[in-house]
Each structure stands twice: as C-alpha cells, then as structure tokens.
C-alpha cells in the first residue's frame, strides 16, 4: 500500500477546523496504543504479535491454502513444495518441502510469523524454529471443525478477520448440512488406503477418520493412535471392510486399488465397493475437505444401496 508522505502542515490545509486538527493529533497515539494480537495455536501455545503479520512463511500446503481462504494470501512470502492451490500459490518462493525445510531460507525471508505443521514438519526443524525466536504457530487440525477455527485464527494473526470469519461461517454451514444428511445413516466399515508400499492407512485421530464418521462410516483401523500407521494386507483382509477407499498422489484413480480384487471374500471386493477420492480434496485440512467429504458420503451411500434387503 502506498501512503502519502506530505508534511503535516500541508495536511492541515485540507482539514475543516479544529475537529480535523484533533483527529490528526490523535492518530499517532491510536496507532501506538494498538492492542497486541494473542492467539492459541493447535497445541495450546499462545502466540502474541505486536501487529498483524505482513510477512508469513507457510510450512505446509494446507497452511498455504488456509491462508488464502482467510484472505491472507498476499502476506505469504514463502512456502513449501506442493503448495499448489490456489493457482497464485504456485508462484510463491519455496523453502524446501514440508519434511525437509531449509531453515536458512526461512530466516532469509524475514518473516514476522511462521506457521508450521505439528505432525508433518520434522520435529527437529520445529524445535530449531523455536530457538530462532521467530513467532511460530503450530497447525494441527484433527477434526473437521478445526478447519473453521484455523481460518478464524489465521485471520486474526494476519489482520484479515472479515474474510476469514466469512469463510469459516460458510464452512460451518456446509458441514452442518452434511452432518444432518449422513451422520445417522447405517454404519459402513471403511478401510482408507493412503499408499501401497508401504501399505498405509489412517488412525482414529486423523482428520479423514472424522470425515468417515461424518458420512456414517467406521474406520476399521480407528483404534490405532498413529496418524498414518502401516498395516499388513492380512490385517485388512481380517478386518473385512465393506468399502475400500484409496487416495494416491494425484487426480487419477491409482491402479493399485484394483490389487484388492484378488481377495474375493472381502465384502468391499465382492460388492465392487472400491472407491477413489482425490487426495487434494480429502487429505488437506482446508475448506475443500468438504468437497471430498461429500464425495465420500455419496460413495458410502452407494455401498448401503448394495446391501441385501
């Protein structure tokens, strides 16, 4: 933003009487006494900024997307690989990947706020960022509702509360609609496959498990506490899910989803309930999560329709 630097005596010429002079005199005092911004991050740590952040480094794709959704995209000065949504994010400078951060590049960006991913960034990198004295917010939204809260907090930190709160309200409205439509539907046992080798799924505390619950489903490995645990093929077969959902890496259905067809006694295979949801719609903690949730809910509804009367 470009502001006028004309001398005060010239500004007074345009003022109408004592009221304008009083306003000019009061302006510096108002700025000087502006209240600091204090927000609790997702680990319960308090973050205090003297003023809204103007130079933000985002250390995860979902954080970058959330900042844009909160109206703070123009304040991001650097991010990590795979931060590709919205399109403007692809043009941002990179400071490595979310699991291999270039700490020197982070410091060189001169941020007044760094937002890191608690379970995605390397713990050693997060610890080092703390010792550097940079204002650090740790993001870890594990529930669908946490997306709306993240939008509001990012808006507070960046001074963009108006668009952030509007986006949060819209998210909550859509979530309430899906909840009303699907939460009480008959349970469907779901195996969610993140990757083939190693065979990775999701634990009960991962946000995708919350999406499954929203749709009236049950994660067959929901009892596991690890975010992305490795499991065996034998364990999946023993769990006998009614639905198998794969994500993969891109927008195309992964070929390895069809590898399950050899296990004909698994209910998901017998009923052809092998589904795909693009990872960008369900594996990022952003407003687009509800697009993935809607698709998953429709797939579980399709599985219910195949049950014997």
Automatic annotation (TrEMBL):
Residues 55-308 form the Fe/B12 periplasmic-binding domain. GO terms for biological process: cellular response to iron ion. It comes from the Bacteria. Pfam families: Peripla_BP_2. PROSITE patterns: FE_B12_PBP. Residues 1-31 form the signal peptide. Keywords: Signal. The keyword Signal applies. This is Iron complex transport system substrate-binding protein.
